[in-house]
């Protein structure tokens, strides 16, 4: 059975969001992609007070400058598509009020006919937390837990009742409801985040950084789930960050998925052997415009399917 393949939607500053998002979404579905994805960076601090992923001295990539809001981006893709799943990888959940986020995701799922996948994380940017003003950075894990609980409450049967640290719903009708239970996928590498995944999540969302590393991580997730007695299957969707160049791959020690189309497909095939359910391709800011993004997406998809991926 072929690995499901998805594509990231154009959110970066070189795109005309209102025109290019529906166009790329429609084209990607026609090509054969089974899912479409967005991610979240709420702002671009200048000067940066914190390195990328909180690594001192590491600059933020230019792709994060002026990134389109993820749920608005997915909304633009809804009416342009009919079958592709619409996912976030990831949405920084604690930047959003739990109740409003649950309502937005539920409405989006109802509008799309049951195609939303909620990939949720805690993020790492102190500046984003300060700007959002929902909760302190130090409480991010607790807020993510509350977001998940509020989502389950709001998406469930009426009347909705919930009482938490940020959210209090005495008894209310909250609609529209999702067309089906929205799967919640979580990145998880630490014991605490693995516990959240096993106890609260429907699936795992890693970033593919090498086939051997991914295989080790995936086995670790499954082992942890077995130790905790989980019997429900864990869905798995991996993000692959692509950087296409016209130069042939030189075999040097670089991150995977760099080089020409043949090398990208070779690397993708190695990762597909790990056995995840799905991978989605993110060309980041490599394409100059939507036409180039669509051409690259078509070429990689065709080559991947020809290679049996």
UniProtKB/TrEMBL annotation:
<protein>
    <submittedName>
        <fullName>LLM class F420-dependent oxidoreductase</fullName>
    </submittedName>
</protein>
<dbReference type="InterPro" id="IPR011251">
    <property type="entry name" value="Luciferase-like_dom"/>
</dbReference>
<dbReference type="GO" id="GO:0016705">
    <property type="term" value="F:oxidoreductase activity, acting on paired donors, with incorporation or reduction of molecular oxygen"/>
</dbReference>
<dbReference type="InterPro" id="IPR019921">
    <property type="entry name" value="Lucif-like_OxRdtase_Rv2161c"/>
</dbReference>
<dbReference type="InterPro" id="IPR036661">
    <property type="entry name" value="Luciferase-like_sf"/>
</dbReference>
<dbReference type="Pfam" id="PF00296">
    <property type="entry name" value="Bac_luciferase"/>
</dbReference>
<feature type="domain" description="Luciferase-like">
    <location>
        <begin position="18"/>
        <end position="232"/>
    </location>
</feature>
<dbReference type="InterPro" id="IPR051260">
    <property type="entry name" value="Diverse_substr_monoxygenases"/>
</dbReference>
């Amino acid at each position: 059975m072929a690995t499901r393949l998805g594509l990231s939607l154009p959110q970066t500053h070189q795109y005309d969001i209102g025109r290019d998002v529906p166009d790329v979404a429609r084209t990607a579905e026609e090509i054969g992609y089974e899912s479409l994805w967005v991610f979240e960076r709420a702002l671009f601090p200048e000067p940066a007070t914190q390195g990328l992923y909180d690594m001192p001295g590491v600059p933020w990539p230019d792709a994060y400058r002026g990134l389109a809001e993820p749920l608005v981006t997915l909304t633009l893709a809804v009416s342009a598509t009919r079958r592709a799943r619409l996912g976030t990888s990831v949405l920084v959940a604690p930047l959003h009020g739990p109740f409003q986020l649950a309502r937005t995701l539920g409405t989006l799922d109802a509008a799309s006919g049951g195609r939303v996948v909620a990939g949720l994380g805690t993020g790492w940017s102190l500046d984003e937390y300060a700007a959002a003003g929902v909760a302190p950075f130090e409480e991010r894990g607790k807020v993510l837990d509350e977001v998940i609980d509020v989502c389950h409450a709001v998406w469930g049967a009426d009347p909705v009742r919930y009482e938490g640290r940020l959210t209090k719903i005495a008894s209310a009708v909250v609609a529209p409801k999702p067309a089906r239970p929205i799967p919640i996928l979580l990145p998880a590498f630490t014991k605490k985040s693995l516990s959240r995944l096993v106890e609260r999540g429907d699936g795992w969302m890693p970033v593919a950084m090498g086939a051997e590393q991914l295989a080790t991580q995936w086995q670790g997730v499954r082992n942890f789930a077995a130790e905790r007695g989980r019997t429900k299957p864990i869905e798995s969707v991996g993000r692959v960050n692509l950087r296409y160049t016209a130069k042939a791959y030189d075999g040097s020690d670089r991150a995977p998925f760099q080089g020409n189309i043949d090398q990208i497909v070779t690397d993708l095939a190695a990762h597909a052997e790990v056995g995840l359910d799905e991978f989605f391709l993110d060309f980041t800011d490599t394409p100059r415009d939507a036409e180039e993004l669509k051409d690259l997406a078509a070429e990689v998809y065709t080559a991947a399917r020809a290679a049996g991926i």
